[in-house]
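Narrative of accomplishments. A recurring question from our advisory board has been how the design workflow behaves on a single, concrete structure rather than in aggregate. To address it, we present the structure tokens for one chain from the evaluation set, followed by the sequence designed for it. No filtering or post-editing was applied between the two.
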């Protein structure tokens, strides 16, 4: 008598949440204004404005931009604002900060739009492996969003999970 092989994972009621589905399209660009500073340390308003005016902002079309100044210089806030004004018509998203900050903002925006109703009292596995670079921030953010709605949260793959949260039983 042969026993039938049963795929318990396929038959389970686990719901997989794949953060790769929320990865925003578009090149990531780090725009460093250090090269537009006089002697690499001083912002001269007239020269800076000329650089901004003559720069080809269209080359950033459909990209996601992070603005920084990696030089040890005092940069007035308006300089970053001027760059944002000129880049904004072309880019998908623009932030002040590094590429890590940019990725966090992109995920924050995408995850804020997730409809959580299908996850009501579900056993959710947040997928852990993939092809795209998912920041730790995204895992923390989706956990924060899901926890009040689900019966449990696990990390990994449905066939091999790490249990993280189980909702208390209602009395």
């Amino acid at each position: 008598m042969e026993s039938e092989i049963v795929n318990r994972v396929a038959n389970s009621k686990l719901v997989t949440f794949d953060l790769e589905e929320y990865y925003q399209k578009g090149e990531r660009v780090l725009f460093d204004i250090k090269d537009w500073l006089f002697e690499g340390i001083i912002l001269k308003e007239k020269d800076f404005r000329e650089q901004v005016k003559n720069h080809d902002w269209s080359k950033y079309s459909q990209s996601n931009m992070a603005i920084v100044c990696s030089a040890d210089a005092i940069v007035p806030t308006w300089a970053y604002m001027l760059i944002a004004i000129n880049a904004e018509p072309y880019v998908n998203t623009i932030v002040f900060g590094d590429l890590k900050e940019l990725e966090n903002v992109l995920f924050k925006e995408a995850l804020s739009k997730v409809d959580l109703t299908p996850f009501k009292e579900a056993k959710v596995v947040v997928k852990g492996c993939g092809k795209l670079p998912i920041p730790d921030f995204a895992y923390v953010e989706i956990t924060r969003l899901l926890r009040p709605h689900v019966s449990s949260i696990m990390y990994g793959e449905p066939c091999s999970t790490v249990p993280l949260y189980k909702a208390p039983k209602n009395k």
